[in-house]
Amino acid sequence: MQVNTNLQQMKGGYLFTEIINRTKAYQTVHPEAHILRLGVGDITRPLPAPIVQAMHQAVEEMGNADTFHGYGLENGYLWLRQTIIENDYTPRGVVLEPEEVFISDGAGSDLGNLSELFDTHNTVAIPEPAYPAYEDTSFMAGRQVEFVPCTKERHFVPELPKNHADIIYLCYPNNPIGTVLTREQLARWVRYAQEHKSIIIYDAAYEAFIQDPKIPHSIYEIEGAKEVAIEVRSFSKTAGFTGVRCGYTIVPKATGLQAMWLRRQCTKYNGTSYISQRGALASYTPEGKAAIRANIAYYHETAQILLRGLRELGYEVFGGVHAPYIWCRVPEGYTSWSFFDYLLENCQVVCTPGAGFGPSGEGYVRFSAFSYRKDCEEALKRIQTLA
Ligand code: PLP
Description:
about 375 residues; alpha/beta; Aspartate Aminotransferase, domain 1; Aspartate Aminotransferase, domain 2; 7-stranded mixed β-sheet; 13 strands; about 40% helix; binds pyridoxal-5'-phosphate
């Protein structure tokens, strides 16, 4: 047996595991410390009541011989796929067929698994700083990666790759920077993919946070994108599904990949749990939609508290308007990890070091608005005492 050496190319530790380890180590030495967690992007609001009710009912059905559900379709129940199209795409002028929607157990799995559709020799472009999954899965597959820096000097808008890229990962609203792309900026990438016969894997896990009606929610709002893009979405950060697991991926037939992806899923994935899918369906009822709007409004408010507060304290901050993340420049003399340690030790505040998202993330930390209002206010009070 030989191990897959591609896995050894990946960075030492997974970013969020390292943050958890350092936080735990601090808590062990200071058991009395009240640590405020504004680091890892996990939600703090519980599942909305209409979703809980739908899942309870689904559990009841599963416990009754007359209404029990065994394996479902590998690509998900038709009622959920149709509801997704009617609610998330039709109102935006995007025409999709139910066979182009694949229900998943979350965006994370599909972002990794989609890589199996492509030849090992395909080259990859990743604007960075980036959510670590794109780089990790590309390295696991043994692919060449060109990182495209997103810097403040370029208003965090990625340039097109210098070299030909077969596969491109884009994430908007962006994690970690919290920025969005305008229609014109996104259209440049679609044109690039058309010219280069590339595929864009568009991670829209945070689309529900977009506030400006001019900003595209889906890459398919750009003409021609159905031929060159796969879109990945999640119920995690909107409907509170980080611990439930449900998401979906759009693989349009026009990409020529839909049948292959279905074939792959039929062998390797036996479908998302009936209970999760019933919960996801409930997020589209009027009550479910209202609950989700309330969740998003809450996180928008925590983002505003952090954004305003940090700015008042003299920090340079970005993002946080169409996304739950605030990208903050660290003070002179600090690296992103040394500022992480400094905040943990002196304020008991946990953030995420920008360097963990790529070299252009050095000099920044990310604050997550998936927090409690009172914790954000308390964190700002504590940060104010530094100086
Ligand atoms: N994509 C981005 C950009 C994320 O930030 C996350 C989770 O934090 C995911 C995907 C994974 O989402 P899921 O919970 O649906 O696997």
